[in-house]
Amino acid sequence: MSLFLKTYCRIKEGEVHINGELFCQHMDEDPFLRSVYKHIGLTYPKFFKMDALSQLGFLGAEMTLMRSELEEYADDDVAVIFANASSSLETDHAYYNSLKESGIASPALFVYTLPNIEVGEICIRHKLYGENNFLITERFDAAQLLEQCEALFEDNAAKAVLIGWTEVENDNHDGFFAFITASGMNEVTTEGLTDLYLDR
Amino acid sequence: MSEVFIGAKSVLCPLGDTPSMVYKAMLNGETGLRALENPFGVETTSHVGLIPSILIPQEHIDSTKLENMLAKCYEHSVSKLRFDPFQDEDGLVIICTTKGNIDKIEKDDDPRLPLTRLSKFMRQSFDLANEPMIVSNACISGVLGIITAARLIRAGKYDHVLVLGGDVVSEFTLSGFKALHALTDGICQPYDKNRTGINLGEAAAGLVLSNDDTLFKGTFDEYVSGASSNDANHISGPSRTGEGLHRSIERTLNPSEIRPAQIGYLSAHGTGTSFNDEMESIAFERSGLSEIPVNSMKGYFGHTLGAAGVIEVMLGLEAMKRKELVPSLGFEEMGVSRPMNIITETIAPTSDYFLKTASGFGGCNAAALFKVG
To answer: Interface pTM (ipTM) of the complex?
Structure first.
């Protein structure tokens, strides 16, 4: 079946591109993700409680969904399927190291030691009651993500899918987000989506 | 829509290493949960479900405990098939896990920590044609892996999918659930008035889904439908209205033309925490399932996290086949606000339809429906 691309967003090396065009650059004193948050002009206090992985996914979803005519879909017709290579490993280390150093386990850190928490944050923000999945692959795998979209559409389980790839290591961010639909104008293939990811 | 068959059960858990051995132990009312003094260095009186070490090949540098568990289930499941379809392009292995080799976290850069290590290990060990897919979606990972497998088959992407679930108990998970005040003293009591929390258990389990019923040497059942749904409410607490669980049940039943009253057995998540069990009772009432015989298996081997959905579907299918549903261990006095038909003594299912549900952190919920026999 054919799949269509509505919107995509790339967050990498201090820059945000939406549909291939530069949206903002890291310039001020703030950490990168915080400066993007400010640039969007959003007030969402929960953002500051999130770990870096959830912040990256949250921002990518925000910028992608606000250009995807989300209001045209029922609240459970939009699936959120994310993937990455290292799961929540950075927060896993933060949780475990703090336990070893202080002898006290932090519940606030422990909650973020699951990668799908970022999908939960996105669903809360946009009131999405649809399908979820979080897959782990060594590299960005456009074929696997589009295969998931197709399997959901064929099963009438969704009409659109927000797919996302989010990696965080130290202060390096690698985010790619796309809104994939079952009908539309801009047909997308595995090669096409891979090129958009590799483009930046 | 093409039919999807499910069978070739395998298991490794505190109660044994074959489906019939584990099922019989449950029928006898045995629990695999044990009291340990400071398990994994964590101060808790919560009992823990560990796999007897004689059942798992010795861990060594090339393969961890979890990897050995997954490998054993792979071998058991494949031995129940006429041939191994996973060395061909039309076969896929899905691994469902929340934390993988998290027991290796003491060393920051241990190469066994990334979850992708599990897919590499399985691919190398069994000469798999495709890189295994890893589903890591909290405590619904197992049920979601089964739903994903069925969808991939129906979409014509693969003919045969082995779904493996696996997680181990470690200092990491025990200390974390303790910090959340989610561990019970002693043994959990799902849906009971005196329930105070969960036990952690470890397990691996396997099920093969296929569009070809001649693949199975022995008996097999049918996957009917399934769905997941997010609560869109809270990352670490279930919705007070059971919204996501209710929706996942509705979206599972709607396309199947099976009405709630036709379901013969409901295997619920039933962790034993105050909030989860109460949420489930609300969602089940909203879904018209209050009368359906229901149990939680957590009292038998604990909450096995990413493995829970696979092992509980596997044992639910086993109980349906034998037409003897086991009691919800630990339940004595009704402790949720909405009516539930909790199984307190061995009974026969009321129909051939079996519904499995699960819920997890991140607000995720999933349901899957099977037809047995």
So the answer is: 0.98
